[in-house]
Amino acid sequence: MWEGVQADEVLGTIQASGLNLPPDTAKVSSSSGCDLICSYNWQIGGIEIISPGCVAEWKKIDLPLNLTGARRDHARSTDQLRVPRHSFEPLFRAVEVMNPRLRFNDVDIICNRNSLRNLILFSSQRYLQNFRVNLLVVNNTLFIERCERDASIIIRGSYDRGFGRAFEKACTTYPEGLDASSSHHCVLSYPLGDLSCVVRFEVDASYNETKEPGASGSTNSLSSELENRSTNCPQSGNPETSHVVDSMRQAGLRHQTAAAEIKTGVRLKPSNKCMEQLWFGRTPWLIRGVHSNGTFHKVVVANVGASFIEWEEDHQTQLQKLVMTLKQLRSIARDLGGGNCVAIFERSLGSQTLKVFKAVEEKQALPEEMIAKFWGP
After folding, report:
1. Cβ pair 290, 300 in contact under 8 A
2. pLDDT digit string (tens) for 3-37?
3. For the chain, the helix, strand and coil percentages under 3-state DSSP, each to the nearest 5
4. Which of 261, 290, 364, 365 is the most buried (most CB within 10 A)?
């Protein structure tokens, strides 16, 4: 059992086998598009963010690319990463800069892409590892916090025991002024069936098949103008940056169509094995590097965004059951009067059951002043 859980009392359970869809279940579709809420870059060291953020650009590389001398795993203390007490606070600090007038009263779900991937695997009764998510409610909005036994994973991702991070670093470059970034995070708003969702995720790269990095129209000039005028995590936005922010927001919307996920392996991983991750992040490009003992000899770039509609049609039932799971989690958390509970899936229990417990620690999803600001009139 995970720490910080009152395990003696189960507040609710969700059985994957019991997710029976009614005939009038809303269709899940990406056809309505998405809106960019905000973006930010974590800086090396993991203690501050810059917002608006900018993703690293994919650059032309020569093959073979030898990375055999690269460190193969990211030590847990490499960047001494620090996660705030409120894990979604960086998101809202970025919103203060990019969308200060935005209100979240009509948002149903705020979560990380990783949580959606775990929950769709659960609701589809497919194989998955143990996972935990923290559930917190603000008014009618359910926050689903990712929870890892090592908190640094939340910022920088899972430990790379292969050459993935080394390949990513060798093949991408951040624009001038953001070269001290350790990662780029994007936050999108889109409907999931009849739920309004805000989803945060990391973007590996920006891929543009029609121009070289740094060409006219790239984000380099904007990021240079933004340098020294961005905000870090504990600060709020500066009105003087409004024209820069507006420009960066539009650039962000354009660059979402160039967002790319990078995968590596000794064999070419089929693109359909990555579709859930790509679909939830509305990430149209998949870049796969193939290596032999750290020497990369093949790179395949595919525009998988063209397959989103076909994929969601083929997986409509699974997506609808995900929506049902999200609704049930929100209902259980709301009944507790503000949430502050924990949902846990344990494979050792022998059944596809998600159990919800009360959390030991009392906390809110966000600092009180943020709740008042973004859920106010």
Report:
1. yes
2. 888 888 899 999 999 999 999 999 999 999 999 99
3. 30, 30, 40
4. 365
Asked if residues 342 and 319 have their Cβ atoms less than 8 Å apart, the reply is no
- Round to whole Å and give the CA distance between 114 and 106: 23
Report H helices in 217-347: 220-226, 242-256, 275-280, 308-314, 316-335
**Token digits for 44?**
């090396």
The amino acid at residue 161 is R
Residue with tokens 């390949």: 167
Q: How far apart are CA 275 and CA 261, in angstroms?
A: 11
For the segment 131-147, what is each residue's pLDDT rounded down to a tens digit? 999 999 999 999 999 88
Which of 284, 283, 299 is CA-nearest to residue 60? 299
Give the span between the Cα atoms of 90 and 37, in whole angstroms.
13
Rounded to 5 degrees, φ, ψ at 144 are: -115, 105
At 274, list the tokens. 């990555």
The three-state secondary structure class of 309 is helix
- Give the contacts of 160 (CB within 8 A, at least 6 positions apart): 72, 73, 74, 166
The whole-angstrom separation of Cα 124 and Cα 106 is 28
